[in-house]
Specification:
The protein is α/β, with parallel strands linked by helices and 275 residues long. It is built from 10 helices and 13 strands. The strands form 3 sheets. It has a 5-stranded mixed beta barrel. It has a two-stranded antiparallel ribbon with strand order 2-3. Strands 7-13 form a two-stranded antiparallel ribbon.
Amino acid sequence: MITKCIFPAAGYGTRFLPATKAMAKEMLPILNKPLIQYGVEEAMEAGCDVMAVITGRGKRAIIDHFDISYELEHQIQGTPKEELLVDIRKLINECTFTYTRQNEMKGLGDAIYKGKVLVGDQNPFAVVLADDLCVNPDGDGVLKQMVELYNKYKCCIVATMEVPKEDVNKYGIIEGKEIEEGVYMVSNMVEKPDIESAPSNLAAIGRYILTPDIFRVIEQTKPGKNGELQITDALCHQAKKGMVIAYKFQGKRFDCGSVDGFVEATNYFYQKSKV
């Protein structure tokens, strides 16, 4: 079973400066809930109860958020506002939160590797990028869909979506053969390819299920695009052995690492709250 989920959360969030100068981008709220809480709730729905957060300098608010605030709870006890803490209390009571730091920004592959000390190297685990906010109002969350797929194929799984051709240079792009509807056996992955050379318009987004041997592969992977250790490059190595599945998930994804996507997500959840 997949019970552990890594949350890489050490990035600077420079696209939201100056708001992120002293505040973690993962704590930016969509309505009254921070981005990372949406991700933790999705992971919990998928069966995870150990949340392994990769933090960095200035990320203390994440740790405090998933902890009890005795003074606050005392102040609002017995008032209508106490109801607002029900969801976060459930996460705190039912999940274990562990933390380690990524001292230098060396890429997503490096951030995931830092999580080895938290999730171990014996079992598969999930990875959620909190600024990719995913929803599926008509059914299971994206990560739960992927766990069900893992139970069938027992290999690394990458969530993907079709993007406009002019945007392929912003993503890791997969090349593969469709083996069932919406499921592809990956043969190649390219990090942020040129528009002319992209093998497809099927882009990886911030949801992964990884097998524990990925840590050994990351150790052997050389820095790639921008001198960073890319998880795309490590997965490409696995793909050559037929060990990576790409899944075109059911639902909607908001790129909350961008201002446009953040505003779109805010409007979506605001309208949903009024129904």
